[in-house]
Specification:
Elements lengths: L15 H4 L3 H12 L5 H7 L4 H4 L3 E2 L7 E2 L16 H35 L11 H10 L9 H17 L13 H10 L6 H11 L8 H31 L5 E5 L9 E6 L3 H11 L2 H9 L5 E6 H11 L19 E6 L7 H8 L3 E4 L10 E2 L9 H15 L12 E5 L3 H7 L9 H8 L5 E5 L11 H12 L2 E5 L1 H9 L13 H10 L4 E3 L6 H14 L11 E5 L5 H13 L2 E4 L10 H12 L5 E3 L3 H19 L2 H19 L1
Parallel strand pairs: 4-5, 4-6, 6-7, 7-8, 10-11, 10-13, 11-12, 13-14, 14-15
Antiparallel strand pairs: 1-2, 3-9
Bound molecules: FE(4)-NI(1)-S(5) cluster and iron/sulfur cluster.
Length: 658
C-alpha cells in the first residue's frame, strides 16, 4: 500500500455537446443528469488518465517496481531490473495482444465446440444452415468435398480447425488461405502461427520479469500471436458462425434507440457470441411467451441487439440494433428496457448501477463474465431455450410493473447491412462466390482509389462517433471504398451512411460504381471478429490479380479511430503483420522518439509487413491513408490510370450530354 496519492481538484463536469455526436445518446445523457445517474462519459470527464500509463512508460510486472519511466528521461532511466523503455513498452504491448487475442480465440473456440456438438447431434437447437459455405471452407484448406456427405465433411473440418487452437508445432490450417508471397514474408520472419493457445502462452511467458528483453524479438512473437487471432481464432469464429447461422447477404435494417417500443416488452442482448441472441430469436417468437406478454398488457416482445453480437444479428437477420459501445448505459436511461442480457466482452460494470436506477433486469449469462450483484442465468447450448426463456419471462414481469417514466429518443436510421466477403464480388457484378475481378478492375481503372477498413470501438476520451464519421466522410469523398465492422459500423449507420443514396457523398468515381450497383459507399461486414472477412477479401484481391503479389502491395489501409480495447490492438497488429497500413486514433501506448516507436511506425514496413500509424485528428488520418493508398498505386503503376479516368469523366459526361 502506498500513501493516498493526491488526485484531481474538482471533477470536471461533462460537456454533453462535445461528448457525443449521437443525438439519442446525448438526449439520454441529459436525462441521466436530471435523474442523478452517472455513466462512463461522466467518469471519463472526472478521471484524468495517468500520463505515464498512457505512454506505456510504466511496468508492474514484478514487485521490485512498479517502475515509472517518465517520457522526458526515457533513455536515461531504466527499471529496477534494468529494463529499458523499449522493453517496457514492447512488453506492455505484448500483454495487450495476448489478452485481446485470447478474447477472440476463446470466442472462436466456443463456436467450434458448438459446431462439434451440433455435428455429433448433442445439440439440437442449431443445425448447419449453410452447407455451401461448409464445403467452401473445407475446400479452402484441402479437405475433399466431392461426393461426400455433409456430416463427413463437417467432421473433418472440425478436426482440422481444432488445430487452430491446440496445435503445438506447424502452421495453422487457414495459413493455406494466405497469398503465397505474404506467407513467404511470414516464414522468413518466423511468424506463421502455431495453435493460438501455444502462441498466447509463449507471448505471456516472454513478458514475465526477466525473460524477453529485446523489443524486436518480442514484436516477432506479437505478430505471430496476433496472426493466430486474425487468420486463426477470429476467422474460425466467422466461418463457423456462417456455417451454423447462415452467411450474411444484404438486408435492410433499422438502428438507433428509436428501435425501442414503449408499448412492447423491450429486451436487449449485448455482447459478442451470436448463439445466445440466435436462441433469443426463438424465444421471442414462441406463441406462449408472446401471449404472456400480451396478457401483461404489452403489444408484443421487441428484441434488439447491441454492440457486436447485435451487429452479427443485424448483418445476418436484419435484427434492429440500438447502439454501440458508448451507448450501452445511455440506452437504459430510456427506462424502456425491461431486460438486458449480457455475455462476454465490452460489458461495463457500470451497467449494473444504471440498470438498478431504472429498474431494468440485468442478467449475466456466460460463466466467464459475472458481475458482482447481478443475477446470473447461465446459457447452455445443450438446453438452449432455458436461459433466453427466463430472460423473456423476467422482462414480462418488469413490463407489467413498469414504474419509471419512459423517454425513448425518436431516432431511427434505416440502412443496408450484411456484406459478407462472398457478397462483395457478387454485388460488383461477378457471379455469386465467383471472383473479385470487378472490384480489382474498378481499382485498376481508378474509379475506386483503394479500400479502407474503418473499424473498432468508441472511447469516451473523444467525441462518440464523430471521429469515425469524419474519417469516413473524407475517405469516400476521395473515392476510397470503406468497409466496416463493430462499433464503427454502427456509428456510420446512425449517421445515415448505409443507404445507396449516401453515394452522393462519395467522389465521382466511387459514386459511379455505387450508383451502377445500387450499393452504399460504406459496406458493413459485421462484428469485430468479422475483421477476418477483410483479411479474406484482401487475399482474394491478391489472388484475382493486377494488384501485386502480396497483401502489402494492395492499395488498402485500416483504421480504428476511436479504439479502446486490447482486442483492437491485437486486430491492429494482425493487420500490420498481414501487410496493411493501420492507423489508430485517440492515443497510442508509446513514448515518442524511441526505437520501439520507429520499429512499429517504420521498420516493420521495410521488413515486408504493413506498419502502424497514429493521428487523433480524423482529417489528418484520412490524408495519411490516402497518401499511403496513392503510394501503393504508384508502386503498382496504376497511378496514371486514375488520373486519366478522372480527366475523362467530364469529357465523357460532355459526350453523353451531347
Ligand atoms: Ni470490437 Fe465489439 Fe465495440 Fe470495440 Fe467492444 S463491442 S469486438 S472491442 S467496443 S468495436
Ligand atoms: Fe520494474 Fe523490471 Fe520489475 Fe518491471 S520487471 S516492475 S521494470 S523491476
Amino acid at each position: 500500500m502506498v500513501e493516498k496519492i493526491k488526485t484531481e481538484k474538482e471533477p470536471k463536469a461533462l460537456d454533453i455537446k462535445n461528448a457525443t455526436s449521437c443525438d439519442a445518446t446525448a438526449q439520454m445523457l441529459a436525462k441521466a443528469e436530471k435523474d442523478g445517474v452517472e455513466t462512463a462519459f461522466h467518469r471519463a470527464a472526472a478521471m484524468r488518465p495517468c500520463p505515464i500509463g498512457a505512454d506505456s512508460a510504466c511496468c508492474k510486472h514484478c514487485s521490485m517496481g512498479p517502475c515509472r519511466l517518465n517520457s522526458k528521461d526515457s533513455y536515461g532511466k531504466v527499471g529496477v531490473c534494468g529494463a529499458t523503455i523499449d522493453t517496457i513498452m514492447a512488453r506492455n504491448f505484448a500483454r495487450m495482444i495476448a489478452c485481446g487475442g485470447a478474447a477472440h480465440t476463446d470466442h472462436g473456440m466456443n463456436m467450434l465446440n458448438l459446431f462439434r456438438e451440433v455435428i455429433n447431434g448433442n445439440i439440437k437447437d442449431y443445425s448447419i444452415k449453410d452447407p455451401i459455405k461448409l464445403q467452401e471452407v473445407a475446400n479452402s484448406i484441402g479437405i475433399e468435398v466431392e461426393d461426400r456427405d455433409i456430416k463427413e465433411i463437417a467432421t473433418d473440418l472440425y478436426k482440422e480447425l481444432e488445430r487452430t487452437y491446440t496445435q503445438v508445432e506447424g502452421e495453422i490450417p487457414f495459413a493455406k488461405r494466405v497469398p503465397e508471397k505474404t506467407l513467404e514474408t511470414w516464414r522468413k520472419h518466423g511468424v506463421v502461427p502455431r495453435g493460438a493457445m501455444r502462441e498466447i502462452m509463449d507471448l505471456s511467458h516472454r513478458t514475465h520479469m526477466g525473460v524477453d528483453q529485446d523489443y524486436k524479438n518480442l514484436m516477432t512473437q506479437c505478430s505471430r500471436t496476433a496472426l493466430a487471432d486474425g487468420w486463426g481464432g477470429s476467422m474460425v469464429a466467422t466461418e463457423i458462425s456462417d456455417i451454423l447461422f447462415g452467411t450474411p447477404t444484404p438486408v435492410k435494417a433499422e438502428v438507433n434507440m428509436g428501435c425501442l417500443k414503449e408499448d412492447e416488452v423491450n429486451i436487449i442482448i449485448h455482447g459478442h457470441e451470436p448463439n445466445l441472441l440466435e436462441s433469443m430469436v426463438d424465444s421471442v417468437s414462441d406463441p406462449i411467451l408472446i401471449q404472456a406478454a400480451k396478457d401483461a398488457g404489452a403489444a408484443g416482445i421487441n428484441l434488439v441487439g447491441m454492440c457486436c453480437s447485435g451487429t452479427d444479428m443485424l448483418s445476418r437477420h436484419g435484427l434492429p440494433h440500438v447502439g454501440n459501445f458508448m451507448s450501452t448505459e445511455a440506452v437504459l436511461v430510456t427506462g424502456a428496457v425491461d431486460a438486458m442480457g449480457v455475455d462476454v466482452q465490452c460489458i461495463k460494470q457500470g451497467l449494473a448501477t444504471v440498470a438498478e436506477c431504472y429498474d431494468t433486469k440485468l442478467f449475466t449469462t456466460n460463466p466467464r463474465c459475472r458481475i458482482e450483484g447481478v443475477e446470473h442465468i447461465e446459457f447452455d447450448e445443450h438446453d438452449a431455450r432455458k436461459c433466453p426463456d427466463a430472460i423473456v419471462e423476467n422482462a414480462i414481469i418488469r413490463f407489467k410493473n413498469r414504474k419509471m417514466p419512459i423517454e425513448i429518443p425518436n431516432i431511427k436510421n434505416t440502412g443496408i447491412h450484411g456484406f459478407s466477403h462472398e457478397y462483395i464480388n457478387y454485388m460488383l457484378g461477378g457471379t455469386f462466390r465467383g471472383s473479385y475481378t470487378p472490384l480489382n478492375d474498378n481499382i485498376i481503372n481508378g474509379r475506386i482509389r483503394g479500400v479502407a477498413g474503418v473499424v473498432g470501438c468508441n472511447n469516451p476520451r473523444v467525441k462518440q462517433d464523430w471521429v469515425h464519421v469524419e474519417l469516413v466522410k473524407e475517405l469516400i469523398r476521395n473515392d476510397v471504398l470503406v468497409i466496416q465492422t463493430g462499433c464503427s459500423q454502427l456509428a456510420l449507420a446512425k449517421a445515415g451512411f448505409y443507404t445507396p443514396e449516401a453515394a452522393h457523398l462519395a467522389g465521382d468515381g466511387l459514386r459511379e460504381v455505387c450508383e451502377t450497383v445500387g450499393m452504399p459507399p460504406v459496406l458493413g461486414l459485421g462484428p469485430c471478429v468479422d475483421n477476418s472477412r477483410i483479411l479474406i477479401a484482401c487475399a482474394e484481391m491478391v489472388k484475382t490479380g493486377g494488384l501485386g503479389d502480396s497483401i502489402a502491395d494492395l492499395p488498402v489501409a485500416g483504421a480504428a479511430p476511436e479504439w479502446m480495447s486490447e482486442k483492437a490492438i491485437c486486430i491492429g497488429q494482425y493487420f500490420v503483420a498481414s501487410g496493411v497500413y493501420t492507423v489508430f486514433g485517440v492515443t497510442f501506448p508509446i513514448v515518442k522518439d524511441t526505437k520501439f516507436e520507429k520499429y512499429l511506425f517504420e521498420d516493420l514496413e521495410e521488413m515486408g509487413f504493413g506498419k502502424w500509424g497514429f493521428s487523433a485528428d480524423p482529417h489528418e488520418m484520412a490524408q495519411m491513408i490516402i497518401k499511403h493508398i496513392d503510394k501503393k498505386r504508384k508502386a503498382l503503376g496504376i497511378d496514371k490510370s486514375r488520373e486519366r479516368v478522372l480527366m475523362d469523366m467530364s469529357d465523357r459526361q460532355k459526350l453523353e450530354a451531347a
